[in-house]
Amino acid sequence: KKKKPKLLNKFDKTIKAELDAAEKLRKKGKVEEALRAFEALVNQYPQSPRARYGKAQSEDDLAEKMRSNEMLQKAINTYDEVVSLPNVPSDLIKLSLKREADRQQFLGRMRGSLVTLQKLVQLFPNDASFKNDLGVGYLLIGDNSNAKKVYEEVLRLAPNDGFAKVHYGFILKAENKIAESIPYLKEGLFFGDPGIFFGRFYFHLGDALQRMGDKEAHKWYELGYQRGHFASVWQRSLYNVKGLKAQPWWTARETGYTELVKSLEKNWKLIRDEGLAVMDKERSLFLPEDENLREKGDWSQFTLWQQGRKNEKACKSVPKTCALLERFPEATGCRRGQIKYSVMHPGTHVWPHTGPTNCRLRMHLGLVIPKEGCRIRCAQENRTWEEGKVLIFDDSFEHEVWQDAENYRLIFIVDVWHPELTAQQRRTLPAI
Hints:
Blueprint: H1 10-14, H2 16-27, H3 31-44, H4 49-66, H5 69-84, H6 90-106, H7 110-123, H8 128-140, H9 144-157, H10 162-174, H11 178-191, H12 199-211, H13 217-226, E1 249-250, H14 252-255, H15 258-266, H16 268-280, E2 287-288, E3 294-296, E4 299-306, E5 309-310, H17 312-317, H18 319-325, H19 329-332, E6 338-344, E7 348-353, E8 360-368, E9 374-378, E10 381-383, E11 390-393, E12 399-403, E13 409-417, H20 423-428
Antiparallel strand pairs: 1-11, 2-4, 3-7, 4-5, 4-6, 6-13, 7-12, 8-11, 8-13, 9-10, 9-12
Helix pairs in contact: 2-3, 2-4, 3-4, 4-5, 5-6, 6-7, 7-8, 8-9, 9-10, 10-11, 10-12, 11-12, 12-13
Organism: Crotophaga sulcirostris (Groove-billed ani)
Keywords: TPR repeat
InterPro entries: Asp/Arg/Pro-Hydrxlase, ASPH, IPNS-like_sf, TPR-like_helical_dom_sf, TPR_rpt
């Protein structure tokens, strides 16, 4: 059984009845009343850590109710004040700093959160859970190197810590140490510590096994599906809206975006010619694919819209193509997608992978397609591109690409919102 945290020091025990009365208001959802009660207690007993903590919690609750970042910042400041008081029980310090770090992350103050987590680790050096949280803090600012050191330290102290194992495995995989990452990911998931049943670890373990040619990958995808992390064994996106129609391949009519498809197919030569002009420049505007999705080969992209934002500079190079697309907000406003040219050279293989979200569909317009040697698989079906024709698939399903032709392949990629998303969802879903 988990021990109940000790939150009262000697002084707070003498005002327990008043503290309990204020806390009762908070738990009943009477947030404004609770805040006034705790503020009165703080004014009367400024040395009371529990009163200060109650004030922070009430501000936190009120921030959520009001959807106010300003109020949330007040809560963060008050959580920090708790720790600076004399004779604060260690359990209350832990709760205050942990919540402070969490709320800082919520506001996007990742570096501030990191300082708070570092303070926690300094105060409680033997608590592996705080070191694990610190590792996540480093990962959130993209500092994999320091995160790796933290998890190495945890694993020296606690070799079977599942949380540290999966995160260490995740970092190794990000470093492209695929074979080395597998045992850490596998053992971490096997030990099953709380907090590690995130779909991303099943996702990365399966992906690592697939890249090593190990058929065990699908066993882990199946387990991830059974535990509710994936919509299906094949559809393994992690940022989803439940209930959307799910199938690997779509027709234009099924999407409802027939006007967009007609426009792309009607103007494919214009789109192709502007793309070729950009490709042929000495200072190529195409950038190599940087998501580590290639087993081998040469694959580059030239992006016009990203996360619903137009790249004005890029569009100056292909003005007619961009003008054409401006008429279709289902594409240009898709904050979970991109619009881009994609060139793939012979000898390229793209690993089986899935996109991040089920909220979009992906259109591929064929621009320069060799007669043989290029194909794409989505789920269990292979297809090929045709010049001037649009292929539509749901990239939240596993897909894989081979380019074994004698010449390059050029396509135009247009992501669109999933047609079943409401106008409200399209306005409010966060970008990916």
